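Progress report, Aim 2. The chain analyzed during this reporting quarter is listed below.
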Amino acid sequence: MNKLSLNNQILLGALLGVLFGLWFSMLGQESEISQSGLYAAKLTGTLFTDLLRMVLIPLVFTSIVVGVANLRSHQQMNRVWQVTLIFFMSTMAFAVVLGLTAANIFRPGSELQIAMFQNAMQDFQATQMSLPEFFAHFLHSLFQNPIAALAQGNVLAVVIFALLLGIALVIGGERYRNILTLMQEFLELIMMLVGWIMRLAPFGIMALVLQLVATQDTGLLTVMIKFVAVVLGTTLLHGVVVLPLILYLMTGVTPYKFWLGGREALITALATSSSAATLPVTLRCAEQHLHVKRDVAGFVIPLGATANMDGTALYEAIAALFIANLVGVELSLMQQMIVFATAMLAAMGAPGIPSAGMITMVMVLQSVGLPAEAIAILLPIDRILDTFRTMVNVEGDLVGSLVVQHWIKRDGSST
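Predicted structure tokens for the chain:
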């Protein structure tokens, strides 16, 4: 194993996880070998994700403070803001349009009967929230006591406070130079810890993939095969074709070079189903393998982990039309435009944790009068779909950091 690079070790771990997961699945859940293996995998996988979450909040806080503070030129800072937000909004909008188009062409759910899922819907209680209530709740979550946000792991509130603190350090200038130096040294220490944690990554990812493969309900996947195929096909189209094409056209970076550099982060996202938990790995890949400047990566990627969710937005758009087909409701063009807007807003407000899209999916359904209880139909198969949409979410953050860096360099050389 020592002769293999960490990238290849992680890839090997993922492949072994698939193989062992299939073996345990064939043996059955009652087998002693399966039970012992799944218990060990759960311990290992939980240890790995807990270690990543341990460094998550201090890493987000210090990377954004340092990133913003080092963008000392106000003109440059404004340009980073502008390019980042334009990129995030554009790719998310494209993802939702792609999802709606695929759902209208293939019409998943039209061949199924809602009666098949009545028991699941009756047993599920959805917490409903109107669009104005969600918007008010979203705004409230942005501005909180920073100490409480740090302690509770509220990534979005930490991002906002770090942005404001970074801007204050820029405006304060040399007077607060010691604080900036302290933050820079703390960030270097956190990145050292991330390097240590990544030594466990091959084993952690093998354990997480093993659990995912071994515990899937293949019977339900077969029943909903058309929906699963449309979601996975469209998600992979966006991740394998659209985002790499945007990257190549805007920066000249080839897909091969990108995937080679970002492989650790993409596989970790696939295994953990959490863009937040993957964030330490994403930052490491951006800086060390893709050679994004720390200032740019430290600003774009933590912000993207909370606000740039291409895969989630695409999934919620398809899922809304799937449920509409399932209950026999034909959504008009205006209603689909409402789905477009709410899917983007809901995806931006979704926390970067496993199956977070399910939390905001209720709002998307409610916006066009679909039964919120129908979300219960999606829950049993959401875990497998969540892995791929999280990988695309993380890919969008990496692509965004490269695009922003390219445009900043271009603007700097043209002035």
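The domain at 6-412 is CATH 1.10.3860 (Proton glutamate symport protein). DSSP finds 18 helices and no strands in the chain. These observations will guide the mutagenesis work planned for the next reporting period.
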